[in-house]
Amino acid sequence: MVSGSLISDDYKRRFAKFISNIAYAPIISLPVFALINYFFLNLHDFIIITAVCVIFAGILPILLVMLYLKIRSKGEEVDVDIPERTERNYPLILVILSYVLGTVILYALNAPAITTILMFCYFSNTLILFFINLYWKISIHALGVAGPSIALIYVYGPFGVIFSLIIPLVMWSRLYLNKHTVSQVIMGAMLGLVFTALQIYYFI
After folding, report:
1. Burial level of 189, CB count in 10 A (0-12/13-18/19+)?
2. Angle at which helices 25-40 and 113-133 cross, to 10°
3. In whole angstroms, what is the distance from residue 114 CA to residue 33 CA?
4. DSSP string of 26-79?
5. pLDDT by residue (tens digit) across 21-59?
6. Rounded CA gap, 145 and 2, in Å?
7. Are the C-beta atoms of 106 and 53 separated by less than 8 Å?
8. How many CB atoms are closer than 10 A to CB 22?
9. Residues in CB range of 141: below 8 A, 6 or more apart
């Protein structure tokens, strides 16, 4: 019984880590932007617009955060989740700058409105998160999945709801790995859902 319990716990931990890794906000943004752009664009425009989204919502944020952590750690091993609230401020600023540039470029390229607005939501939601983080840590993972879910529901209707089904799974993974409290994952998810919905409604 003890051995079975240990195997079960190890499996759950591996599964929780897997979910957390793929639900990292820059990673999740890649299929979301691709699905949205596929709905609106021809192949040529899809490639250009999606490339911009991949660079400024995915690749650049990851590179900037990793570079910051590498400089900050001075060669020591670091947790990419950045568990310490106060250590998140500078990485958040760097990511915000990437989202701003992405929004400007998408607007200049006449990208689909929802694509540009979603990139803007990444900027504005992360900015709000930054100010909240000055006093309280909430779940970036939950926020990073909940916000894009609203955009997919806007584009694909009921089919977009399928993507949102991973929100509870992501929240569970963060709790199981002891990265957040219940209130922190709930607040992250609610911030993503509510603020993204309001911005899409306001701009479109």
Report:
1. buried
2. 160
3. 10
4. HHHHHHHHHHHHHHH--HHHHHHHHHHHIIIIIIHHHHHHHHHHHHHHTTS---
5. 999 999 999 999 999 999 999 999 999 999 999 999 999
6. 35
7. yes
8. 14
9. 20, 23, 24, 25, 170, 173, 174, 179, 185, 188
**Are 82 and 76 contacting, i.e. CB atoms less than 8 angstroms apart?**
no
Here the tokens at position 75 are 């060669």
Tokens read off for 173: 């993974």
pTM (global) more than 0.90: yes
At 20, list the tokens.
């957390």
* pLDDT 10s digits, 70-123: 887 776 666 677 878 888 999 999 999 999 999 999 999 999 999 999 999 999
Q: What are phi and psi of 23, to 5 degrees?
A: -95, 10
Neighbours of 24 (CB within 10 A): 20
In the chain, alpha helices (H): 2-22, 25-40, 43-53, 60-73, 89-108, 113-133, 140-156, 158-164, 166-176, 182-203
